[in-house]
Amino acid sequence: MPAVSLKNIVRKYGEKKALDNVSFDCAENSRTVIIGPSGAGKTTCLKLIAGLETADEGSLYIDGRDASSLKPHERNIGMIFQDAALFPHSTVYDNIAYGMHRLGYNKDDIRKMVQETAEHLHIESLLKRYPGSLSAGERQRAGIARAIVRKPGLLLLDEPFANLDARLREELQKEIISLQKEYGMTMLLITHDQSEAVAMGQYLIFMEEGKVIDSGPVRKVAEDPRDLRSAMFIGSPAVNTSPVSETKDGPMFFGTILNVSLQGRNVIGAVRPEKMFLTEEGRGFACTVQSVTHGYRESTAECMSMYGPLRITGTDFAEKQILHVSFHEGDVMLFDAETKERIRLM
Ligand code: ADP
Ligand code: MG
What we know:
- The protein contains 8 helices and 21 strands.
- 38% of the residues are buried.
- It has helices at residues 42-50, 92-97, 107-120, 136-148, 166-183, 194-200, 218-223, 228-233; strands spanning 4-13, 16-26, 31-35, 57-62, 65-66, 77-80, 154-158, 186-191, 203-208, 211-217, 240-247, 250-253, 256-257, 267-271, 277-278, 285-294, 299-305, 308-314, 322-326, 333-336, 342-343.
- Helix 3 packs across helix 4 (136-148).
- It is α+β, with helices and mostly antiparallel strands.
- The strands form 4 sheets. Strands 6-7-8-3-9-10 form a 6-stranded mixed sheet, sandwiched between helices. Strands 13-12-11-14-20-21 form a 6-stranded antiparallel sheet.
- Helix content is 23%, strand content 34%.
- Magnesium ion binds at residues 42-43.
């Protein structure tokens, strides 16, 4: 039984559908990441699960129960937002313990639980301090502690590390994963950062314009996308795309005749920059390096060819350099230009 299950959810704001027939499941004790551009409906999804939004159509199940009648505090959920949103006039301790009294915990239990959680997140020494005196990272740790102190079954995170520097982000990503495993929580995280998606997620849901476009195990979605939109969003540097054109010798993609039949369809081809390789003059096709982005291990060259622009990764590029580039036909992904869906042509 999935811990969370959305079935055909529609959420409208006026005429606009923020969620347009969204369905997905999160397996118990798993880590799922929702990724997608701004405005895709990611936050709306999370709010719906938390009970801060209601659906116009469709159903939501939490632990197999229809959640429509459950109040937010009955959902056994911890939430973390981009901004920890702590109460400024309460100590870190009181922020973490907030609401626990009302939920029927006694003072000793609360003290024990706050202490244990604070130790986990390395903020024991900050419990008497006020949020205003904390660094951004410390504030976010306190926010995480508040979300998990009751060991919720479901942990919802909405771009929680967006305001933190890279090192802190990595540290907190690791800590959240270890807490998720230790407490056996089901985690649903929103990000628009794909390195975070890979670092945190086992499963990936790609959303755009209120729809789930692609989903599956993280690696599967990244390496074998079902849709041109997820292929183009996921992967860095971004995938190379070009229309596949019908020629008298057959369908052509970046100067290479593909061994397929287009069957009259408009097709877009795509090949990952890292799948492109350098070859000798007279093979493959020529392109000119227009700019180079240097990375620690690898650089990316933005090139122009007679078939259009493309990116290629490698170690050593110079501007204005002429490269001879090729790829294996097996690394070309084909998509229907109209529906954007992946197609397999013979
Ligand atoms: P994301 O988190 O993926 O950036 P959101 O879920 O916040 O996207 O928003 C999805 C769409 O719904 C956007 O077009 C946004 O403008 C719209 N939207 C979200 N909340 C409201 C609201 N309270 N009123 C009107 N429109 C909203
Ligand atoms: Mg959002």
